[in-house]
């Protein structure tokens, strides 16, 4: 079987905050269409790695290649426009806006390459509105269409966060702890959702819940103290000695 | 009835009725300053950029019109267009330098640029008239309209006022408006969706500058004189007060703020030489009792009425 194409690659990525090296020479390849989980204890540098890949943070060393193109010096919105969508660990939905408006903004970006229009009422952009409703329907969020994000439960905000990310129609999806703070039932819902979109996107996911990671991932990378300590299939990782000591404390 | 149409009808009604109930010169100043206040609301209320340098664009429009009509020897419409384009260009240049700064730093930079503009005008007195301002401005006729007639000039300004309202309201409700509102809350998220937040903010800053320039231009035509105050930081502060008094949630708020500001300024100055003190008390009163500005009064009344109807229904 042919080797799958690498869509995103980190080469010796490094980030320092003062004297602390938070991401320390991380090299990783993300093949197309696979679900790649990143595991590691708190402070391992996982979220910082995401922030480097999306250029939320400037890179101190190393390179990022997106489909072979060097994107290390681009700005966050330019990375996004190249098909990288991301959800945040701390829910970053726009609390003062409705579900419709939150998803609409993402859909509109996917529909329009240029500057946002400045005449027609945003609701009267019918094609975008239609796609917005589709995304809300797919995630079972129609009942919340006109509710303000601030007015719903945390679990529903997490789902909105994913809906917004999907609505940008990305090729690569970076999910930062999609189930954090969710009840068991809610995280099962998110897990099923991720399973349902698996294969349509290249998914890179930071996740703490071991059952979620082991059940749905194709590849797993474990980080500790800014470095990659192991990479492999879920089965390989669960038996890796270095991982067991760093992550499970065994 | 559609809410948009209702608001538009109210704005048109205000423009028509105002000169019948208050002196036409005051009504005229109100609608001109209201354009300035709406322009300022686009940056402060919609985009959340605390600009304390709006008078720089108002003043640029004022001086460009004054100069075009006197030394430039241009006719009226080109003078207004030059004011709009010049103020927008100035906003583009200033904005390009400062838009990446946020919050307090952005505010201080707008203030600093405003002061610089003021001193340029003050020192360059050969062209601007310095402290004395620029006099000798005439309203040349436009397409057979004699703008020296107070009613005709008022109508001319009223048309531009309503047009400014419609345009700025549409921008507020447009995709750009929603992007600005969202970026005010979470710029990082907007960037991760692929929006150039600084690009959108710069666009808003320039559009605001353009309308501030139009207001400055009409102000000069109204008084046939360019006072140096038109570009001073006090003017920048005043327009922010108008927006706060009126309310930022819609473009009707700043119109109400401008009306109340201009009217109260006249009233208080008749009552007491230290009128600014009374004015300060009034602003404190509004901020403490009516968060959201005077427009909030209407919303509260509407809510009470709705509740009443629900009760009776």
From TrEMBL, chain A:
What keywords appear on the UniProt entry? ATP-binding, Nucleotide-binding, Transport
In terms of PROSITE patterns, this protein maps to:
ABC_TRANSPORTER_1 (PS00211), ABC_TRANSPORTER_2 (PS50893)
Q: Look up the record and report any one GO term of the cellular component aspect.
A: plasma membrane
- Which molecular function GO terms apply here? ATP binding; ATP hydrolysis activity
One Pfam family this sequence matches: BCA_ABC_TP_C
Q: What is this protein called?
A: ABC transporter ATP-binding protein
Annotated signal sequence range? none
* Tagged with keyword ATP-binding: yes
- Keyword Cytoplasm included in the entry's annotation: no
Boundaries of each ABC transporter domain copy?
Answer: 8-250
Give the similarity note.
Belongs to the ABC transporter superfamily.
TrEMBL record, chain B:
Which GO molecular function, any one, fits this protein according to its record? branched-chain amino acid transmembrane transporter activity
Tell me if Ribonucleoprotein is a UniProt keyword of this record: no
The protein's location, in the record's own words, is: Cell membrane
Q: Does the keyword Transmembrane apply?
A: yes
What keywords sit in the KW lines?
Answer: Cell membrane, Membrane, Transmembrane, Transmembrane helix
What Pfam families is this protein classified in?
Answer: BPD_transp_2
GO cellular component annotations, sorted alphabetically?
A: plasma membrane
Protein topology in the membrane: Multi-pass membrane protein
Bilayer-spanning residue ranges: 30-52, 73-99, 105-130, 151-168, 202-226, 238-264, 270-290
Q: By what name is this protein known?
A: Branched-chain amino acid ABC transporter permease
- Taxonomically, what lineage is the organism? Bacteria, Pseudomonadati, Pseudomonadota, Alphaproteobacteria, Hyphomicrobiales
